[in-house]
Amino acid sequence: MRNSILPFMLVASLAAAPALADWSLDAERSAVTYVTIKAEDVAENNSFQEMQGSIDADGQVTVVMMLDSVETLIPIRNERMREILFKTTDYKEARLTAKIDPKLITDLGVGEIVRITAEGNLTLQSKTQPMTLSMQAAKLNAGTLMVATTKPLLVDAAKFGMSDEVDKLREIAGLDSISDAVPVTFVVTFVDTPAATAQ
What is the pLDDT, as a whole number, of residue 195? Predict the structure, then answer.
C-alpha cells in the first residue's frame, strides 16, 4: 500500500512546486548606456533605444542591443556611429549572453534582492569576447524582475577590431583622443512569460 501511495505523492509535490518560467525583456522599462571619453577627460553618455532579451528556464540570459538605435543626443554623431563605428549595414546587433543558476530566480521572493556574478560573452561585429558580469536582481512582484549592473562592463573596441574606426571618428571630429575602452551599464526589466501547460 505504501509503495502505491509514493507515485501519487511525487506527482502532487511536483504539481505544487513553482513552475519554471521564461522571462522576456521589457524594453520600455530597460536601459543600456555607455560612456565615451574624448579629449582625455570629456565624458559623454550614450545609449541604445531598442533592445530585446530573455532569461529561459535553464538560466540562459540574452540581451540584444539594436545598433541602429544608438543615441548620442547629436544627430550627426548618431549617423557617424552607425555608419563608421558599428557599420550597421552589415551588423545589426550586439549580443550579450550569460548563464546563471535558475534557482537564484525561482527562489527569489518579492521584495528580495540577490547579488549575481556570471561569466558571459559579448558578440559585436562577429567577434566574441568573454565578460564577467557583476549584477543584482530584485523581484518587484511575482511577474517582474529587475536586473542591474553593480560594476560597469569594460568594453574595449580594440578587442573587437574596431580601433581604426575609433581613430577615424577622432579625425573627423578633430579630437586629440577618443578612448578605445568604454564602461557599459544596464538596468533591465524582465516580465514573467510562463510556459504553456501541457494538455
Answer: 53
Q: What is the DSSP letter of 197?
A: P
Q: Under a CB-based contact definition with an 8 Å cutoff, are residues 71 and 78 in contact? A: yes
For 32, 34, 86, 88, 191, the CA distances from 152, given in Å and listed in that order, are: 11, 9, 21, 24, 24
Q: Which amino acid is at 132?
A: T
- In total, the chain counts a number of residues equal to 199
Which residues of the chain register pLDDT less than 50?
Answer: 1-19, 196-199
pTM: 0.84
Distances (CA, A) of 83 to 34, 89, 153, 178: 18, 7, 24, 17
**Contact partners, residue 182, CB within 8 Å, separation at least 6:** 34, 35, 36, 37, 154, 155, 157
Residue 128 to residue 122: CA distance in whole angstroms:
5
CA distance 197 to 199: 6
Q: Are 160 and 6 in contact (CB under 8 A)?
A: no
Say what the pLDDT of residue 40 is. Answer: 83
Pairwise CA distance, residues 146 & 30, whole Å: 9
SS3 content of the chain, % helix, strand, coil (to 5): 25, 45, 25
pLDDT of residue 194: 65
